[in-house]
Amino acid sequence: MQHTLASEINQTGVGLHSGISTQVRIRPSEAGSGRYFVRVDLPNTPIIPAQVAAVNQTVLSTQLGKGEAHVRTVEHLLASLATMGVDNARIEINGPEVPLLDGSAKEWATAIASVGLVSQPSSEDRVLRVLEEPIWVRQGDAFVCALPSEEVRFTYGIDFDVKAIGNQWYSWSPGSDSFATARGASRTNFAESFLTEIAPARTFGLLHQIEQLQQSGLIKGGSLDNALVCGPEGWLNPPLRFANEPVRHKILDLVGDLSLLGTFPCAHVLAYKASHNLHIQLAQRILELADG
Ligand SMILES: [Zn+2]
Question: What is the model's pTM?
């Protein structure tokens, strides 16, 4: 069995980097079609699959593209669809960037939970890739690795030179067989865990980097309403939703990037000070191994 949405979801908002307001309409899609974007504002409404091969930029967010068409900052929406059990979805968008909303995946995940899913009989088995040996990628002291495991687990570490963030580690597993089958019960557990532990964690940034990013033409849509900002004296816009909200958000980004594999690998994915670029490099290595 595969799953799609029971009815459509509509959402409008501003993109973090472009500052452009877009409208997103997520519609049910047939079995085997996967998750894919459609740029409904462009001639011939090009389709951009939510797959590793379509990634064409990873600076501060993950961008997918096909030909001239692209869609940016896909990670929070895709993490929500994948973890909430939506195998097939047609994501229509009328601009170049997914709305940031409150900076977390809460609104996407809540909307998916409220419309619900329908099962789709399918001959195609969406089995997990079982990892036989560790895979890792590294850049300086940052790394991401995937270790063979009995369960799907994500662990993340960050280390910032500001007291309010400092060193944080968090490990999240949806449960022993959550991803392994399309059985209703395990999917439900997984969705609940995502909704409460990961989805509410918001995007965060450091005050001293913000001006520099804005000068580079980035984060035009960022504000104190959609991102936690940390200065030398502490958070500018408390309260936090979790004491370790930043590292939980990193897990959200990691899960969103790895969702581009189609199904998550049955592995313990462990990341330290990583980035979208390293997350995607790991996904590429996992695919190479599967193909090789
Ligand atoms: Zn993020």
Answer: 0.94
